[in-house]
Each structure stands twice: as structure tokens, then as C-alpha cells.
Structure prediction request, 143 residues.
Amino acid sequence: MPKKSRSKNKSHSGVDKKGKILKTKRKTKDLDEIQGHMAADTARHLLNQPIDYDIPGAGQHYCLYCARYFIDDHNLQHHLKSKVHKKRVKDLKTEAYTLEEAERAAGKGQYRAPKPVHVPMDQNNLYKMETDFTDEIVLSENK
Prediction:
């Protein structure tokens, strides 16, 4: 009897979907999006969210710099000490890459280095700094 050969499954036809799934599975927000969230009003809204039971930790424990929710405060504090968080904070200390910078690097205009951005270690200080400053202005006006 002749040996039966296994027929190749042709339903996939050479497309490897696994690589694309793994690339987008752990996709985080880009640095320019996060720097947009670091504005005082947006930061205040993200760090003081109403209770939502569909989000981990009911949306009460959020890392603004990494755009991640945590189950409880202990896990958030552990994350704040982690290497991943510290690397993200270091990356956020430089100005986000923009289209104008790409055009300048390509020769359309004069290149300038990205400016440093102030990123406080405690994310709650982001919106408190600006509100304290405005409170001082209001107090000085009232005197």
C-alpha cells in the first residue's frame, strides 16, 4: 500500500497572526498622549475618578505616568518603586516626539534638541502644584 501523505492545512495560507496579536496585546499609551494627560485638569480628573466597578480597583488606584489601573493601593505603591515605572518617568522627562521635530530632522527647518519636561516623582503633585499656585494668587489679591 502506498504511504498516505498528510495534506497541509491551507486555511491559514502562510499568514502568521500570532505575531500581530502579541505586538498589540500589551500596547501602552504613547508618551505624547501621557504628557497630554499630565495637564492639571486632566490629571485631577484621572487621579480622582468616580467609582467604576468595570475597571480594576474600581478606578481608584491609577498610575498616571504608565496609564495603568491597579487593584489596591499596595500594588500601586509596589509599582511606583518598580523599574518599569522609573523608566517611564525617565522617558517622560524629555519632550514628546512631534511631527515638526521629524520634519526638522529630515531637513525641513533647523533642528533643535527636545526640551526637558518637569515630571514630579509623586503624581499627585501634578495638579496640586498648579492649584497651590493659583490659591496663592487668590490670597494675595484678597489682601
